[in-house]
Structures are given as structure tokens and as C-alpha cells.
Specification:
Layout: H1 23-26, H2 42-51, E1 60-64, H3 70-77, E2 81-86, H4 91-101, E3 109-111, E4 124-130, H5 138-149, E5 150-160, H6 166-175, E6 179-182, E7 193-199
Parallel strand pairs: 1-2, 1-4, 2-3, 4-5
Antiparallel strand pairs: 5-7, 6-7
Helix pairs in contact: 2-3, 5-6
């Protein structure tokens, strides 16, 4: 569980849309996709709960598709070296607002389009993402990003609402040298699956 309570600014419903300057449209975010960043999804909460107990000391952490930023806020409260990223034009504003709501310093943020390299990001020991595989092609794009920005010794933690694209991502990461530690249990009825991958670490 998260332990400490968090206050979060979220969108009031899933029908909201405002793109007066066309920022979202220019990066391929449709009106239907626009409000997705501003909700607390079950997979996002599961990821945040995992980040409440995962080791953080000495690790550089990247969150992909942070949305309202709960997982990054949990890591910030724990003193982790975390960088939150998202393509949505309002993600940075919501993340900053939510950090202030919880008495936290601003979480470092970069606007990040997975199709465009960001050499300034560097490499990371832990890469996390929650419920980012809801469209065709995202597994390939996410795998390429992870393989590019993961350090030689790295861990990946993904939470997913049991969508059909997650197994494709797992296969691509394994092809890229990662070992799958956890994934979907076909017999489980839990709505959210947590996938963990590692590379460059000795077996325990």
C-alpha cells in the first residue's frame, strides 16, 4: 500500500478536451485520447504502490507516460533520483501542481515523444510505466525506448490492465537481453498485471 496519503488533481471526467493552440494535435493526441493522462487508473495506482517499496538508493529512475504523476510523487517523497516524462502538453502542469499539493519539491520533468530521441536524458537503472500499452504499435515503440535508455544493468517495472499488447513488449525486451522476472498469471483474476524485467544482473 502507499502508506502516506496523497492529494491529487485529476480531470473531473473522461470527456474533457481542450487544445486551443493545437499542441496535442501536433503530437498525435486525438480528442478521445486527450483526457487519458488526467485520470488515476488502477494500473497507475499499482505502479505507485510498487514504487513505495522498491529499492531506490543509488538508482536513476525514469517514468514513461507519467500522467498525473503519482508513481513519481511516491519516489520523490522517498528521496529517489526520478525523472518523469510524458508527451501530453498538460502533464508537466499537473505533475507540478500535485507535487505542491503534497508538500513536495517539483519532480524533474521532460516532455518526451517516444519517436524522437532525447540524448539529454542519459541512461537509467530503473524504468517504470503504468498502463501505456493501449494502442497498436506502442509495444514496439516502448521496447525501443526502454532498450535505448536502460543502463547496462537495469530493471523495468510495468503495470498493465491485462491488455493484449503486453506479451509483445515482453518478447521484444527478452530479445533485447532482458530476463522476465514476473508477468501475467493466466489463472489470476487480478485486473492489473505487474511485469518485471532485468538485465545485466547476476541471478539470485
Amino acid at each position: 500500500m502507499l502508506g502516506d496519503p496523497y492529494r491529487l488533481r485529476v480531470l473531473s471526467d473522461r470527456q474533457q478536451y481542450a487544445d486551443p493552440d493545437g499542441d496535442a494535435e501536433r503530437v498525435g493526441i486525438s480528442s478521445a485520447q486527450w483526457p487519458l493522462f488526467g485520470q488515476l487508473w488502477p494500473a497507475g495506482q499499482t505502479l505507485a504502490e510498487a514504487m513505495g517499496s522498491d529499492p531506490v538508493a543509488g538508482r536513476r529512475i525514469l517514468e514513461l507516460g507519467c500522467g498525473i504523476g503519482l508513481a513519481s510523487l511516491v519516489l520523490q517523497r522517498r528521496g529517489a533520483d526520478v525523472l518523469a516524462t510524458d508527451i501530453h502538453p498538460l502533464a508537466e502542469t499537473f505533475l507540478a501542481y500535485n507535487a505542491a499539493l503534497n508538500g513536495l519539491a517539483a519532480v524533474p520533468f521532460r516532455r518526451f515523444d517516444w519517436s524522437r530521441a532525447r540524448p539529454d536524458l542519459g541512461h537509467f537503472d530503473l524504468i517504470i510505466a503504468g498502463d501505456v500499452l493501449y494502442e497498436r504499435g506502442q509495444a514496439q515503440a516502448l521496447a525501443e525506448v526502454i532498450l535505448h535508455y536502460a543502463a547496462a544493468e537495469a530493471e523495468v517495472v510495468l503495470t498493465d490492465a491485462r491488455r493484449s499488447y503486453a506479451p509483445r513488449l515482453a518478447a521484444l525486451l527478452i530479445e533485447g537481453g532482458f530476463v522476465q522476472r514476473t508477468g501475467v498469471d493466466a489463472a489470476s483474476r487480478t485486473p492489473v498485471a505487474t511485469w518485471r524485467f532485468e538485465r545485466g544482473r547476476r541471478p539470485t
